[in-house]
């Protein structure tokens, strides 16, 4: 997965609100119309606090009908009004749904509309829709700032400006590393390798969250994509940032990965290992961690770790002793990596596709 946006960041949010509205509408249809004189206990979740009186009251039948009429008359126009401002049909639809839900939750605000024709109320609905844009942008900014923190020293740009700069193409002689540009890691001392390797030391969930963040997704959208809560996504992102900001921890994890790396062609030798070690190697090769393998085999994590270490050392000895009479094919020439905000010796995939211009 490329984690550099080659186009403007797409502002997309989940469809949770639209689904919630549809669920409520289905429940309302099944329940039928509520009597206008129903008491608070009968109205349940539809109770509303009036901004004028401070007392709780219900969503009356006439108010329900009017919201339905307004939606039928103006919904498409409201969506178009929002699209012109956000340039994203999905986001415009979601914000329109939020606007109708907000209106349904505050029926007292329709009190001043008495005596006015439904067809004449679009300006008021447009104002409420524009207010949803402000709410969305504020939520997005808060999510970014809570995760990313401050930018690099001397960088006065806001979070959105940093995202916009990252999303656009770089200059003709520069390629931007997404991790550095977005997370402000340019000033990290002691790490001069490719950030793709650094991301490789993260746990799968941490790596996925960082990659989606670099794509320009909001924390809310990441949670929907990962089928996780926003709280857990925030935890993954903060843990990943702690590692990425610590060169010593990156080096330690890279060394551990190298020590546990299976030699090339290990499949030819795995049958020579004891059955217990071969079983562990097979599961680790599928991407399972030591604790996962231990749970699968009913063994302790320590015993799995020890068995895997012994197996890797034995496989490396076997590979080193392998003698072949066939001439080894020359390895294919590696593509010359483009320039990056840092030197990426192995050719970082965390960069734009535009190559550096050579003089």
Automatic annotation (TrEMBL):
Keywords: DNA-binding, Sigma factor, Transcription, Transcription regulation
Domain HTH luxR-type: 199-254, 270-323
Top-rank lineage group of the source organism: Bacteria
SMART domains for the chain: HTH_LUXR
Biological process terms in GO annotation: DNA-templated transcription initiation
Single Gene Ontology MF annotation: DNA binding
Region Disordered, annotated ranges: 16-60
Biased composition (Basic and acidic residues): 17-34
PANTHER family with a match to the protein in the record: RNA POLYMERASE ECF-TYPE SIGMA FACTO, RNA POLYMERASE SIGMA FACTOR HI_1459-RELATED
Similarity remark: Belongs to the sigma-70 factor family. ECF subfamily.
Protein name: HTH luxR-type domain-containing protein
Organism of origin: Streptomyces halstedii
Lineage: Bacteria, Bacillati, Actinomycetota, Actinomycetes, Kitasatosporales
């Amino acid at each position: 997965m490329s984690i550099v946006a080659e186009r403007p960041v797409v502002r997309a949010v989940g469809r949770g609100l639209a689904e919630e509205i549809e669920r409520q509408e289905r429940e309302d249809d099944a329940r039928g119309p509520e009597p206008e004189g129903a008491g608070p206990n009968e109205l349940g979740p539809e109770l509303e606090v009036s901004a004028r009186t401070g007392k709780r009251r219900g969503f009356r039948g006439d108010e329900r009908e009017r919201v339905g009429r307004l939606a039928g008359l103006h919904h498409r126009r409201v969506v178009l009004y929002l699209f012109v401002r956000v340039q994203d049909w999905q986001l415009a639809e979601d914000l329109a749904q939020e606007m109708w839900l907000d209106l349904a939750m505050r029926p007292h605000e329709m009190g001043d509309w008495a005596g006015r024709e439904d067809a004449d109320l679009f300006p008021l609905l447009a104002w409420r829709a524009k207010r949803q844009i402000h709410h969305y942008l504020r939520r997005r900014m808060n999510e970014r700032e809570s995760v990313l923190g401050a930018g690099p020293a001397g960088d006065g740009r806001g979070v959105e400006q940093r995202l916009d700069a990252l999303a656009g193409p770089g200059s003709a002689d520069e390629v931007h590393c997404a991790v550095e540009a977005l997370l402000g890691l340019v000033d990290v001392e002691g790490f001069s390798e490719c950030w793709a390797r650094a991301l490789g030391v993260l746990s799968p969930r941490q790596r996925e969250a960082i990659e989606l963040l670099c794509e320009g997704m909001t924390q809310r959208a990441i949670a929907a994509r990962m089928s996780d809560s926003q709280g857990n996504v925030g935890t993954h992102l903060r843990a990943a940032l702690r590692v990425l900001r610590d060169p010593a921890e990156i080096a330690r994890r890279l060394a551990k990965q190298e020590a546990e790396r299976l030699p090339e062609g290990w499949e030819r030798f795995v049958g020579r290992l004891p059955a217990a070690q071969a079983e562990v190697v097979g599961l680790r090769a599928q991407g399972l961690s030591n604790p996962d393998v231990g749970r699968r085999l009913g063994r302790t994590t320590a015993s799995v770790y020890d068995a895997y270490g012994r197996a890797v050392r034995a496989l490396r000895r076997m590979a080193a002793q392998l003698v072949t009479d066939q001439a080894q094919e020359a390895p294919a020439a590696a593509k010359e990596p483009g320039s990056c905000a840092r030197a990426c010796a192995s050719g970082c995939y965390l960069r734009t596709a535009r190559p550096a211009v050579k003089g």
